[in-house]
């Protein structure tokens, strides 16, 4: 159950640490567990290049890429979408060995047993080789979930996510708000999926109409960032051939 009191989240490093320790993600009334594969993973050949905030596997071996940002920061919608699409493209061809290697390294860092950690999500009878093979296949086929986790999800971010999800068959963009929940009698921080329907109906006066909201020209104009527009246009152009 959610905490009754609103919580004041810290900076993005704090958000990332809290999400890394989460047991899963709330969707509807269900808590879906996940396996932490890695955190702050370099995805750029440059020495001080980009890093992927967090990478998980869900119980269906679908990779879950997480971008954690302060939702009240100006421009969060554009920066979050651009960054997480860039991360997804960077890891799209990773092998099962690379995925498993990151998971083992992460377990060692947190001083937890890799076998026990794996079985907590997938069960004691599940073959690990099959899970990692399926996870790599899902990456190659763009069957991934892209979670944007923030202390507050702006309405604009939900609109962008809805637009992209309508264009992409396998890849799903999922806005989540981080909140404190009671999980098995213990207070813990868990991201909760925010659907477009959950966004308050009263939008600012300059919000586009429902018709204009889905027009490509209006959508790309609202991105207001050349790099984000470039990445999103590439995804939208790629999506129809992969339905």
Task: Describe what you observe in this structure.
This protein is of the alpha/beta class and 243 residues long. It has one domain. Helix content is 40%, strand content 23%. The chain has nine helices and eight strands. It has helices at residues 12-20, 76-90, 96-109, 114-122, 128-140, 155-167, 210-213, 216-223, 226-238; strands at 24-27, 30-33, 35-42, 51-57, 63-69, 145-150, 172-183, 186-193. Strands 3-4-5-6-7-8 form a six-stranded mixed β-sheet, with helices on both faces. It has a two-stranded antiparallel ribbon with strand order 1-2. A hairpin with a 2-residue loop joins strand 7 (172-183) and strand 8 (186-193). Helix 2 packs parallel to helix 6 (155-167), helix 2 (76-90) packs across helix 9 (226-238) and helix 3 crosses helix 5. The longest helix is centred in the middle third of the chain and has 15 residues, at 76-90. The radius of gyration is 18 Å and the shape is globular. The protein starts with 11 loop residues before the first helix and ends in a 5-residue tail after the last helix. The model is unreliable at 1-8 and 197-215 (pLDDT under 50).
């Amino acid at each position: 159950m959610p905490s009754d009191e609103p919580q004041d989240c810290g900076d993005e490093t704090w958000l990332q640490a809290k999400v890394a320790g989460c047991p899963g993600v709330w969707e509807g009334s269900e808590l879906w567990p996940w396996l932490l594969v890695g955190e702050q993973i370099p995805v750029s050949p440059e020495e001080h290049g980009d890093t992927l905030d967090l990478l998980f596997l869900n119980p269906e071996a679908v990779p879950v890429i997480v971008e954690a940002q302060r939702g009240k920061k100006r421009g969060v919608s554009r920066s979050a979408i651009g960054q997480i699409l860039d991360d997804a493209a960077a890891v799209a061809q990773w092998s099962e060995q690379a995925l498993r290697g990151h998971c083992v390294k992460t377990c060692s860092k947190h001083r937890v047993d890799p076998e026990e950690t794996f079985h907590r999500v997938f069960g004691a009878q599940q073959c690990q080789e099959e899970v990692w093979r399926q996870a790599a296949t899902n990456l190659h086929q763009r069957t991934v979930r892209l979670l944007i986790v923030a202390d507050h999800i702006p309405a604009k971010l939900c609109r962008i996510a809805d637009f992209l999800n309508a264009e992409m068959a396998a890849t799903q963009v999922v806005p989540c708000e981080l909140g404190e929940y009671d999980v098995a009698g213990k207070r813990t921080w868990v991201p909760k999926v925010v659907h477009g329907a959950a966004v308050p109906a009263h939008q600012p006066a300059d919000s586009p109409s429902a018709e204009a909201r889905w027009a490509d020209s209006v959508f790309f104009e609202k991105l207001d960032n050349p790099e984000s527009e470039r990445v999103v246009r590439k995804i939208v152009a790629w999506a129809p051939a992969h339905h």
